[in-house]
Amino acid sequence: MGDLTFTERMLVEYAGERAVDGPLTLGQINTLEWLGDDTRAGLYRMMEWAVTVPDGTTLDDVAETLAALVERHESLRTSCVTGDSARQRVSGSGRVAVDVYETKADAGSPVDPEEVTDLIAALQARPVDEMGNPMLRAAVAVHDGAIRLVLIACNHLAVDCESLAVVVRQFDHMIRHPAERRAGPRTHQPVDQAAVEHSPRGRRRAEASLRYWGQHMSRMPQSVYAMPRPAGGAERDVRHAYAVPGSASGEGAPLGCWLDSPALRLALPHVAARTQTTLPMVLSAAFCAVLAWRTGNTDLVFASLANNRIGRDLHDYVGTLAQDTLLAVDADTTSFDQLIRRAGSGTLRAAMHGLYDVKLLQNLQAEIGDRRGVLFQRDCACNINLFESEVRPAGPPEEAQAALDRTTLRWHVPPYFRVLLLLRVIDSDGEPLLGLTTGHADLVPAAEIESLLLGIDRLLAEAATGDVDLRRMTEITGLTPVVRGPEWQRVDGCWIELPEVQRLVDDAVRVPARVFAAPDDHGRTVLTAYVTAGGPVRTPREAHEACMSMLTGRYTAMAPGRYVICAGPPEDPDDPAAWRRRPVLAEGDGRKEQR
């Protein structure tokens, strides 16, 4: 920020067509759930987009364009009233704060990414004007009266990624066409969307989404990426072109990496054309391929983003629509082309089930999680934000392999979040930019992130010229399947470590206890916890609730399927037969159904 000097704050007035109240949309309810009630606190709750403008653009041009955008899109002037009578409230008029900075950057020179970063940091550091619109802010970098850069920042409650792209696209058009700086006829707005969602048809769609989630949550693994803790923080040498940030160490530390790959950009159009699918479907399949090969899980179910823009009215809709859905893919195939088609079908099914009441979903997650003894933690997720456009191959498919040597990795430390492994794909000047991020660099270290990213890169380069036999994954990508020792068990579709389950139970019951795995009458593995009486838990239900309350962050543990409260521990606590001989005070599965 040393090259930026704050000069003034402009307050741009706007007057919309209507001021109106209405119920919240499902997207607003979803956003409020993780954003919190105080939508004014902190610009970290906002999304920013930097825009370059034509030579000769003035501050008045910027002000007029921003005013037209806010008047056109009610979401940009909507506040949410929370509590028992939650509502959305559209203001009829107000002001947008625009902070102006003088920059030392040379006139006429290209805008450097560091300039964008500095302007974002400067805007984040400035307090929100109490009289300004909390949903939209802007900053302008000026050099000797010429505008170099405009930064548009919208609250997550007002926009999702695609909505922000609509805002920026329309800003860019109006800044170049002054005669079109007007709100125009009213289009589909969040108040209208809420009415659709509260209609019988809208309720049926939301209910269908919950049924879809319930079907998959009843069988999906607690953690798709349940892996042994790395010894010494890494399993192989790191070949990255940029230094890994030193602050990305220790438990719970976030770490991210972007894959800058000419090979991937060359290969993707060829693979999509051959399989008659889309770029996002191909990328999802590549992620599934490396996940399945590395983890040994072929029944993949993980969170993916649904844009929910189904219908003509939502094409240029500005509002928060995107929600998580579940992408379910059967990766048990030797053909990458077949996996792409399966990922494509799964993507379409998932896209139809991404609109729901998040609070009802949380209740469903809690109910199923309690029954299965698992916690749905969004451990693995896939967010692909590529704008629909026709992408044609830029050269022969053979060139993808030759371009692998030009791949580079760019490391960064993102804000903390709980996701264990997140695939992100964004649109960067019309090209896909792929990255992996973790909220736990101690569990997914730099070497693991690198190997997964390079695995995707090499797989797609190989697939550019034809189908790939996925039994050759190690040869093609360098990825090796994980080796799990005897302490690992497959329980209800979940890979778990018995020592981790033991630690969970020890922390939960705080008395001598032991967990054993044994098959039931149907041959299914069941975890049974023998617990000594006299501690804080007296019944199987209390023991189960205590275990469930401590599952957060324990990706390789689950709550036992049965609890036995014993009068005292045996002489040999590692002998299950000795526990069975102890007097039993209470026993059962501890689930809600048991009274």
TrEMBL record:
| Domain Condensation per the UniProt entry, residue ranges | 49-378
- Span list, region Disordered: 179-205, 569-595
Read off the Gene3D superfamilies from this record.
Chloramphenicol acetyltransferase-like domain (3.30.559.10), Nonribosomal peptide synthetase, condensation domain (3.30.559.30)
The record ties this protein, via InterPro entries, to: CAT-like_dom_sf, Condensation_dom
**Protein name stated in the entry:** Condensation domain-containing protein
- Domain of life of the organism encoding this protein: Bacteria
What's the source species for this entry? Answer: Microbispora hainanensis
